[in-house]
Amino acid sequence: MKPLLWLAALLSFGALAARPVPDIALSKDDKGDWQLNYQLTAPAKQLRFARSPDHSRAARWQPLDPAFQIGQDQDGEYLARKDGQAFSSAAIRLTPTYIYLPKDYAPFSPFSDGGLALHSGRFFACVGLCEGDEHWNLSLAAPKGDHIVSRDGQGRQSLRWQDGGEGQVLYVGPLQPREGAELRALVDPGLPPALRQALDEALPRILAHYAKALGPARAKPMLIASFGRTMGGQYGNQGGVLANQISMHWYGNQLEKLLAKPEQISAFLWFFAHEGAHFYQGQAGQVRAQQDSWLHEGGAEWLAMDAIRSLYPERSAFTDQKLEDARSQCLAGLAQTGLEQAAQRGLFDLYYSCGLALYQRLAETGTDPVALWRRYKAAVAKGAEPGRQVWLAQLPPSQAKVLAALLAATPPEAAPAWRHWLGTAP
Ligand SMILES: [Zn+2]
Fold first, then answer.
1. What is the DSSP string of 315-344?
2. pTM of the model
3. How far, in Å, CA of 47 to CA of 40, rounded?
4. How far is the CA of 249 from the centre of ligand 1 (A)?
5. What are 140's strand-pairing partners?
6. What is the 49 CA–ligand 1 centroid distance (Å)?
7. Rounded distance, CA 88 to CA 306, Å?
8. pLDDT digit string, tens, across residues 245-254
């Protein structure tokens, strides 16, 4: 490369380099109140959050100094002084309750014994828009009686660490992780016994099944299973995987009533298997383009179905029904939108239903989705960007061409094209 070009390349790289970031200090006091402090090395007028899936910080974060506010614009939420002046530190009181954030990890997932899991990525902020390659220095302090469990599974009173990317889950509370052969587990003692038993027995079996099918994981998984009894009259559960951490949260007052229905355990097995599949998808499941979510979400759905079919054949009525429902929901949805536009149209569920139907059709026509995932994972491990292109490249070119056309189809052609391909045409 010529020296001048080389300099230009260096400069343009510089423009994309990480933004200045504050140090982040989190603490919980004896009364259970949570405080967040940002400390900058040079004054700035705004701190912009790396993740703003909605505008809930404004209601849940109270700056201790009323001169500060949480604002929002087209680039998401930010912290600033009301008078627009620069600042070098800010302190905020947090609301440590569960909320659902669209397509993001819950900031706080309370345990019924007073413990709590938090997502570090919620607090990442930059001077200017974050570029995604920043690293933050964080600290966390717990009160007496509590300890902190981070990614490595060790309990401590206080913790300092460097974090970046999507962040990690940290537990603060009285529980000590339980070491099993397949996984390390922090399980809420308040979860109904039937559910705890299902987690204890089924999750290790499911993970061992995936390890055999998809190859061993890089690190021992850590399960963080929490239960918040309150959330108004609502009931629900949410899961997520961050590196070696598999999080599951249940909330609401209906859990015991639900567990009285025999098919509910099947539904929870599917939930465990779906999250477990994400863990074994690993890096290959980190697909950036939202319109390609069928790849990993549909993949996790199919792998879950496959795992339950082989480990719990007696539950086939449930898995058969899930598949049939997925096919009909997919076709109904594709009458309204193409799969690529589903996220924008608020029909994100189509990535699960159409994705499951797609992988199942591949299985029926001689392409084993497990073998496909192994090839795709191997390509990503060699440095390929996770996504549709690399995934399609693992298929014979003629099949890849048919699938690419299906994925791009829009109404009114989308539904009939998928119906024909899925083999359900009359
Ligand atoms: Zn998922």
1. GHHHHHHHHHHHHHHHHHHHTT--GGGTTT
2. 0.90
3. 10
4. 14
5. 26, 159
6. 24
7. 53
8. 999 999 988 8
